[in-house]
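[audit] Reproducing an earlier prediction to check determinism. Same input, same settings, fresh worker. If the tokens differ from the archived copy the diff job will pick it up downstream; this log only records the rerun itself.
[audit] input (171 residues):
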Amino acid sequence: MTGRCLMVLALAALPLVGAAAEFDEDYEAQAWQELALKLPPPPRAETLQSFYVSATTDHYFSIDGATLSTGADGVVRYVLVVETAGGARNVTYEGMRCETRERRVYASGRRDGTWSKARSNAWVRIQDVATNRHHAALFLEYLCPGGVIVRSPEYALSLLRRGGLPMGRDW
């Protein structure tokens, strides 16, 4: 009788295995797809919004608010401007995936306002380390608080203006 019960249970489980396989196929068909990329205009001084990174850096960091967007693909896109204490200026067009804690550089800005496609534009995991902490600051405090994408570009700009999400507040 015990063997017969096991066989009945095994047979009863067969349709579930088939259903699971169908579900997996449906899930695979809905894999994440990044939206087509359109390069923004070069940053303008009047639309730059600075943000705080840490007390250990002498660099000045800002996002061009006119280029900040939240895509239907779950990617926050923005132009990042980094100015060093020595006067060097680095402009990049980037994307950040809050769901996977990754970032990507699409292009670098040239002095004449044009863009140069990034040599390596693979998605890279965001690390919270002392050097080059600006991506971690953007992720943790401004664009992906709690690991969740901000609800709108306007809300992200308000977070940048006020220095991040106050503890205990919702986003």
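[audit] rerun output stored. Observation attached for the diff report: The first helix runs from residue 2 to 29.
[audit] end
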